[in-house]
Specification:
Helix content is about 60%, strand content about 15%. The chain is built from 6 helices and 6 strands; from the N terminus they run βααβαββαβαβα. Strands 1-6 form a two-stranded antiparallel sheet. The chain has a two-stranded antiparallel sheet with strand order 2-5. InterPro entries: EF-hand-dom_pair (IPR011992), EF_Hand_1_Ca_BS (IPR018247), EF_hand_dom (IPR002048).
Length: about 140
């Protein structure tokens, strides 16, 4: 984990760079696709869904959550990705839904810089690194 400063524009600009965004999407998808069949099952997506940290924390400490509620939330999130409801998520579905989620994050953050703790392989971390590389170049 690292502490980064970013805003909504960081996310939007990263997604607008199709080459960088697509590379990140393809890398993440390949990492999650453990059986290499070109589709993500619920089990393969579960770790990614859990990384979204959809439940509140209080000063960085997780709140105890009902296990049944967790299952309902992760089931619902999986269905959001599985656009054709065939029980798996293909690369295009993954890309499309990830883009929508990142745009929602960008809109929620606004354009004032925010200091955040980011996981190393997260999309937000990749967006921050992309922006830093652009500033140096």
């Amino acid at each position: 984990m690292s502490v980064e400063i970013l805003d909504g524009a960081t996310i939007v600009n990263f997604m607008e760079d199709e080459e960088a965004f697509n590379l990140q999407i393809c890398d993440r998808f390949a990492h999650l696709d453990s059986d290499h069949d070109g589709r993500l099952s619920y089990g393969e997506m579960l770790k990614e869904l859990q990384c979204l940290r959809v439940f509140e924390t209080h000063f960085g400490v997780d709140v105890e959550t009902d296990p049944d509620e967790l299952v309902r939330v992760y089931d619902s999130l999986f269905v959001q990705f599985d656009h054709d409801l065939n029980g798996t998520v293909d690369l295009e579905e993954f890309k499309s839904e990830t883009k929508l989620m990142m745009l929602a994050m960008a809109n929620g953050m606004g354009f004032l810089p925010v200091q955040m703790v980011l996981e190393e392989d997260s999309f937000l971390k990749k967006a921050a690194e992309w922006e830093s590389a652009k500033l140096v170049a």
